[in-house]
Structure formats: structure tokens, C-alpha cells
């Protein structure tokens, strides 16, 4: 199966296209109606729904073949170097909010001291900061729990029951082309699938909770930055592929 005929690849291509479309809508709403909280809230919620739709589609595909998602052949090498269980770490979203908060405060520091208020991420309140910090601590722990489950599975490849099963099939000649039912490997694959789904749900949960904590303009600022970062990494990786004369995807 070529990468372009892979269902995961088609899902990814559709997602990248959706990201570009969402980014355009977010920027237009922010520039044209920065004070219209209802409009900004609705478009932020629409973006979260698009995240959820993407992860639900991935979840359905994962039940057929989760293992291919770990190789992510539809991504560039640069993108793959940042992946954590099929996607970015959930805590990256929280770190991005902290970074934007510091940058916007620095850029508008004089105006801030003059009492000018923009309602952006530079103006995160104490309650918001506490909620984001609590979320950060919780998501870090949940990330570690998921990573630990994956580590156990990786170590289990060498456990006694799996080794005996594979060794027995090898002694019987199955390893040389005959079909053998590796039950332990099937169980391993099912466990990997659940870990991938849980990792995606943790990514989605993090974005949802951040958007709920932020006021509409802040939520839109965060989503714009997240999409710009994602698409920039994708485009930079593709450019490097072209520079090195390697295959480059259409996106």
C-alpha cells in the first residue's frame, strides 16, 4: 500500500487542509471583530469540534491498524522527530499559552502600564493562571502514565510467554513463510491501539480545557498560534525534503 492510498494518510491530508481553512477563519474573525465575544467564542468552539472530529476519525482507523500511525509515513522526518505516540505532546499546548502570554506582555508592556487593555493572553488573570497551572500538573502526570504504559509494552516484547510463542513457531518452520497465529502479538497490537486512542483523547482534552479557561479573544489567539506552529513545522519539513531531493507530499 502506498502512503497516498493509506486511510491514515488521507485522514492526515484532510486534517492539514482543514487546519489551513480554520486558520484563515480565525484570523479574519480576530481582525474584523476583536471585541465581539460571541463571534470569537463560536469560532473557537467550532475549531475544538474540528479537533474532536479528527481524533474520532483517527480512533476508528486505529481499530483497524493502529501500528501504522506510529511510523507516520505521511509526515516529514522533521515532524516525526517531535511526535509523542502519534502526535504532539498535550503539554505543548499549555507551554504555547505560557509563551504567548510572555511575548504579548513584553510587546505591549508600555500600553499595559498606561492602563490600555486588549483582552489578549498578556492579560491572563490570577484565577486563569491557577487553573492553567493545575491543568499543566495534571496533564504532565497523565502523559507520564500513558508513556509508562507504552514502555511496559515495549519491554514485554522480550518477555517469556511471547518469546516461547515465537520460538515455537520458528522451530516448526512458521517463521519461514507459513502463517502462524501470534496471539501475544495480537494482544500487544490491541494494547497499542488503546494507548494511541488515549493519547489522542489527552491531546483533545488539553485543548478543550484551555479554551474553556481562556476568554474568547485569548482562545482565538491560542488557536491561531497553535495552527501557525503546526503548519509551519509541516511546511519547513517539506522544504527540507525538496532541498535534499527527497519525495515531498502534496500538502
UniProtKB/TrEMBL annotation:
InterPro entries: Seed_Dev/Stress_Resp_Reg, TGA_domain. Residues 5-243 form the DOG1 domain. GO terms for molecular function: sequence-specific DNA binding. It holds the Pfam family DOG1. One of its GO terms (biological process) is DNA-templated transcription. This is Transcription factor tga like domain. It comes from Thalictrum thalictroides (Rue-anemone).
Amino acid at each position: 500500500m502506498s502512503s497516498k492510498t493509506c486511510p491514515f494518510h488521507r485522514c492526515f491530508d484532510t486534517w492539514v487542509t482543514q487546519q489551513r481553512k480554520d486558520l484563515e477563519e480565525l484570523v479574519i474573525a480576530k481582525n474584523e471583530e476583536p471585541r465581539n465575544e460571541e463571534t470569537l467564542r463560536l469560532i473557537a468552539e467550532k475549531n475544538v469540534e474540528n479537533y474532536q472530529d479528527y481524533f474520532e476519525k483517527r480512533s476508528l482507523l486505529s481499530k483497524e491498524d493502529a501500528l501504522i500511525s506510529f511510523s507516520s509515513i505521511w509526515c516529514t522526518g522533521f515532524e516525526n522527530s517531535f511526535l509523542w505516540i502519534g502526535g504532539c505532546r498535550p503539554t505543548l499546548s499549555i507551554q504555547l499559552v505560557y509563551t504567548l502570554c510572555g511575548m504579548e506582555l513584553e510587546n505591549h508592556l508600555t500600553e499595559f502600564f498606561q492602563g490600555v487593555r486588549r483582552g489578549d493572553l498578556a492579560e491572563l488573570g490570577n484565577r486563569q493562571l491557577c487553573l492553567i497551572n493545575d491543568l499543566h500538573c495534571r496533564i504532565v502526570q497523565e502523559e507520564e502514565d500513558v508513556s509508562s504504559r507504552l514502555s511496559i509494552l515495549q519491554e514485554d516484547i522480550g518477555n517469556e510467554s511471547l518469546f516461547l510463542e515465537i520460538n515455537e513457531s520458528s522451530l516448526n518452520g512458521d517463521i519461514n513463510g507459513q502463517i502462524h497465529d501470534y496471539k501475544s502479538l495480537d494482544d500487544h497490537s490491541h494494547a497499542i491501539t488503546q494507548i494511541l486512542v488515549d493519547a489522542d483523547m489527552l491531546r483533545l482534552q488539553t485543548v478543550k480545557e484551555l479554551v474553556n479557561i481562556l476568554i474568547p479573544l485569548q482562545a482565538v489567539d491560542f488557536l491561531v498560534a497553535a495552527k501557525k506552529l503546526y503548519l509551519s513545522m509541516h511546511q519547513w519539513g517539506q522544504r527540507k525534503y525538496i532541498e535534499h531531493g527527497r519525495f515531498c507530499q502534496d500538502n
